[in-house]
Amino acid sequence: MTDVLIGAWHGGLGDSLQFSTLPEQFYKQQGRETYVADGSTFRNEEIYELVWGCNPYIKGIKEGRRNAGDIPEIDFVNPNGYTSCITNWEELHGLKPTNKYPKIYYQPKKIDGFEEVMMVDLSSVSLKHGSNTNVYPPPYDPEVVKELYNNIKKEHPGKIFAQVNFTNTISEETGDNRTGGKLNVMDVETSTGVLVNNIFTYCDLMNSCYGIIGLYSGQSALSSAIMEYNPSLKSYCIVSSAVYEKHKQQSGFIFDNVEYIVIQDKNVQDTSVH
């Protein structure tokens, strides 16, 4: 049988994670080997290393045209109403649906002292911040996000809320035609901070902490995968109602092990490319 050449159209963390279960299922169900298609883009090398480099079912990088991932030959529909894009993508690729959550094969470590820590990572490359407008996706209104964040704080008295700070520039774009590559960070009041040296440290911290608060971005999808190793992790994702409802119907990045805090948008017009 032909080899699988996989890749995502966009270079973000969630963009790769949505296909993270496919190589194992191609091998187990069809006996096919999977390669990352040469020329696939990633916002930074660490995304490749985590999602594909650590995956034992990825045999390397291979030249050729992609035949798996978000390719034109596969119409991104959700005929069976799956609530998870992972399940839906498996079926759309001709596989028996097996998984509900993204998967990483890196075994995250446990770091002592983070059991009561709620990490706060209100950052995103693909989603912008600003006053609400009628465009899709609507930018995050900082005041609304702060209010929702403070509500979560009130629900968890005694927990240590720690702002995530990245020591490396992890937001560089390479060939992603959707965004300019700037990491947008929303500041809220926290009691301390935590330095993240790389994406593997981030996984270790998620595997060790009480919970994480994020936006509808890569950190949310990663938290869903981390729960295989840290089932008690509480993950909150702040998301606009326009994005949430569309992706819930379409089978986007919605996972039932993440708690979504939905912002009610008004008069939003979908101007995105379908």
What does this structure look like?
The model is unreliable at 170-180 and 270-274 (pLDDT under 50). The strands form three sheets. A six-stranded parallel beta sheet has the order 9-7-5-10-11-12, sandwiched between helices. It has a four-stranded parallel beta sheet with strand order 3-2-1-4. A two-stranded antiparallel ribbon has the order 6-8. 27% of the residues lie in helices and 19% in strands. β11 (234-240), α8 (241-250) and β12 form a beta-alpha-beta unit. The protein is α/β, with parallel strands linked by helices. The protein is globular and about 55 Å long. The protein has two domains: 4-92, no CATH class; 117-263, Rossmann fold, CATH 3.40.50. The chain starts with a strand and ends in an 11-residue tail after the last strand. It contains eight helices and twelve strands.
